[in-house]
């Protein structure tokens, strides 16, 4: 059949997702062809299909699927495979191609089993004017899960919430939230016993300048605390009936309660491990999981429909003995500061332990779920340094599937999309069961056209810089710059320049060129600083250079200011500059000097 314009839709719909799917098929066709066409499109709900399916017969294209959201996915998949689109980044669809499209008859895109039910993002910033673009991009890439801090969800209006809901994106309003359920402002005066006792004193959690509440928790064994949390959860869901889940996640950091009752749930002499950055604190999985289990049971009695999410990382990354992931429990496992030179399932002094933990979590599944909380942008203070993962993700998904992981959600930021967007796209495709051998060449071809091989070579070169640092690499700047030479960064600039020269008007290539130059400048400054030839003025210069590129999608600017301020502080104080000036973190960086180099 011939596709030559926007279609005539047969049938009529009232379901808002179906209405959106019809509007999108018309709009995408109109953008591609510029006028109305002579072909017909038909949508069909078929509960027997595992996913959407696209067929052509006569003059009619049929998109069928088990749910309206799958039909919407079918529209977007058809647009990518047959209309010349690539939904690479939010708000900027790539479209190549001219003239009518001749489609063969028969099944164009067969239905298939979807290997992962949870596919999404962790949003660590407030909703903003670009959030509708994000919802649009997520649906176009078949992502269905968005984890946000509760304080940010509070700021999303009804229209904003609907934009996600209609696109099949479930928002999980949670993240670190002890302080949301039991705010000190409301409870400390009347119930100081709700808060953790440290050195014999009930502490009052107050957000520090980073609002992270590092190291301040609740008295989690107190039955009053647990009952109050359940009560507040139920009231929260009554106020926000569109949500299907709640979360119980400690404040970021450590600092568990040391009262008599809480102390029974951990052994102060049993510290955590180096791979999970917890050798300086005792293991807290038993005390946390006892609370999770109790809250899940109490909540299940009144709201059996709700899922309770909880976090697994640092000193509570392993399941405690006897814990079962019952149908209303989902563990969000974060391989924090994992090695990015090795796959999660490869032999590695860090990742092997994380893989063991993930296996252990999967073995606890009794109807519940295990979701990986990833950092495909190298954690927040990696500052746009290379994490070339678009092939790794496909291989890791094969491993995750084999052990029963239910999904992945990654931290991300739109302002660094030109750097890490390729990872986000790869994740979306891998989670839907696409194969690396087909998906990666397709992505390169759509991004770089005839220069796909050079594009892939550019990424391979950046990856080789990371692997040249040592057998292992954890994504923070010091681990990269202290163990690599300057020359390969200069080579990266040359490769990016060559790519840009072949298509000087490409915004994406221009941004890759800026990215490469940034890597070179940062590495050169790092070397000069350690050689005693650079100080605060040079740090200021690099920061100003970064900030002069606010019109790009290379940098998350708000992360650079505190990070570079920490560097200046170290210089002023004559302190060894390793990372962010947190003593406990710097300690791990010193230990990593051996660990990452295979010693
Ligand atoms: Zn306590
Ligand atoms: Zn490693």
Characterise this structure.
With 599 residues, the protein is of the alpha/beta class. Helices cover 44% and strands 15% of the residues. The chain has 21 helices and 19 strands. It has helices spanning 16-33, 68-82, 131-140, 150-154, 158-166, 178-181, 184-187, 223-239, 260-263, 285-302, 351-363, 392-403, 417-431, 436-448, 452-468, 477-481, 487-502, 507-530, 536-547, 557-573, 583-595, and strands at 2-3, 6-10, 36-45, 53-57, 60-65, 85-89, 92-95, 101-102, 106-109, 118-123, 145-149, 170-174, 197-198, 201-202, 245-247, 307-312, 329-333, 369-374, 407-411. It has an eight-stranded parallel beta sheet with strand order 12-11-10-19-18-17-16-15. Strands 2-3-5-4-9 form a five-stranded mixed beta sheet. A two-stranded antiparallel ribbon has the order 1-8. Helix 17 runs antiparallel to helix 18 (507-530), helix 18 runs antiparallel to helix 19 (536-547) and helix 19 (536-547) packs antiparallel against helix 20 (557-573). The N and C termini lie far apart (63 Å). One zinc ion binds next to helix 9. One zinc ion binds at residues 339, 341-342, 348, 350-351, 471-472.
């Amino acid at each position: 059949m011939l596709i030559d314009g926007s279609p005539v839709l047969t049938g009529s719909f009232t379901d808002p997702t179906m209405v959106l799917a019809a509007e999108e098929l018309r709009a995408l066709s109109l953008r591609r062809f510029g006028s109305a066409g002579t072909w017909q499109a038909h949508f069909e709900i078929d509960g027997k299909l595992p996913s959407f399916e696209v067929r052509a017969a006569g003059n009619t294209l049929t998109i069928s699927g088990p749910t309206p959201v799958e039909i919407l996915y079918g529209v977007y998949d058809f647009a990518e495979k047959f209309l010349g689109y690539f939904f690479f980044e939010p708000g900027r669809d790539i479209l190549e191609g001219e003239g009518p499209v001749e489609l063969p008859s028969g099944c164009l895109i067969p239905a298939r089993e979807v290997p992962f039910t949870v596919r999404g993002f962790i949003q660590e910033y407030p909703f903003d004017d670009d959030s509708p673009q994000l919802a649009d991009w997520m649906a176009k890439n078949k992502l269905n899960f968005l984890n946000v801090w509760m304080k940010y969800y509070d700021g999303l209006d009804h229209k904003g919430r609907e934009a996600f809901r209609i696109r099949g994106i479930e928002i999980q309003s949670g993240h670190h939230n002890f302080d949301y359920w039991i705010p000190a402002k409301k409870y400390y005066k009347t119930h100081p016993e709700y808060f953790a006792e440290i050195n014999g004193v009930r502490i009052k959690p107050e957000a520090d300048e980073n609002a992270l509440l590092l190291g301040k928790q609740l008295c989690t064994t107190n039955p009053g605390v647990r009952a109050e949390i359940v009560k507040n959860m139920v009231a929260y869901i009554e106020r926000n009936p569109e949500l299907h889940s709640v979360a119980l996640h400690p404040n970021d950091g450590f600092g568990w309660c040391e009262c008599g009752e809480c102390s029974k749930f951990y052994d102060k002499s049993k510290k955590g491990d180096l791979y999970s950055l917890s050798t300086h604190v005792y293991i807290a999985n038993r005390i946390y999981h006892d609370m999770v289990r109790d809250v899940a049971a109490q909540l299940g009695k009144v709201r059996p429909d709700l899922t309770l999410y909880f976090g697994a990382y640092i000193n509570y990354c392993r399941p405690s003995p006897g814990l079962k992931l019952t149908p209303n429990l989902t563990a969000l496992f974060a391989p924090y500061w994992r090695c990015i030179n090795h796959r999660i399932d490869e032999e590695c002094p860090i990742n092997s332990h994380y893989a063991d933990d993930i296996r252990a979590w999967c073995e606890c599944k009794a109807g519940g779920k295990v979701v990986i909380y990833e950092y495909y942008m190298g954690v927040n203070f990696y500052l746009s340094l290379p994490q070339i993962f678009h092939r790794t993700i496909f291989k890791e998904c094969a491993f995750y599937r084999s052990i029963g992981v239910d999904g992945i959600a990654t931290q991300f930021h739109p302002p660094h999309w030109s750097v890490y967007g390729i990872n986000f796209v790869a994740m979306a495709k891998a989670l839907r069961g696409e194969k690396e051998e087909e998906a990666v060449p397709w992505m390169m071809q759509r991004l770089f056209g005839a220069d796909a091989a050079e594009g892939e070579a550019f990424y391979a070169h950046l990856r080789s810089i990371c692997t040249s640092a040592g057998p292992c690499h954890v994504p923070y700047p010091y681990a990269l710059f202290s163990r690599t030479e300057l020359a390969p960064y200069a080579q990266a600039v040359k490769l990016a320049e060559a790519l840009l020269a072949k298509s000087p008007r490409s915004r994406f290539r221009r941004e890759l060129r800026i990215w490469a130059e940034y890597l070179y400048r940062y590495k050169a400054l790092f070397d000069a600083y350690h050689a005693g030839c650079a100080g605060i003025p040079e740090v200021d210069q690099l920061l100003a250079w970064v900030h002069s590129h606010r019109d790009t999608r290379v940098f998350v600017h708000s992360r650079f200011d505190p990070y570079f301020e920490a560097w200046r502080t170290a210089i002023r104080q004559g302190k060894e500059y390793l990372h962010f000036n947190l003593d406990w973190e710097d300690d791990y960086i010193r230990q990593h000097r051996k660990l990452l180099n295979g010693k």
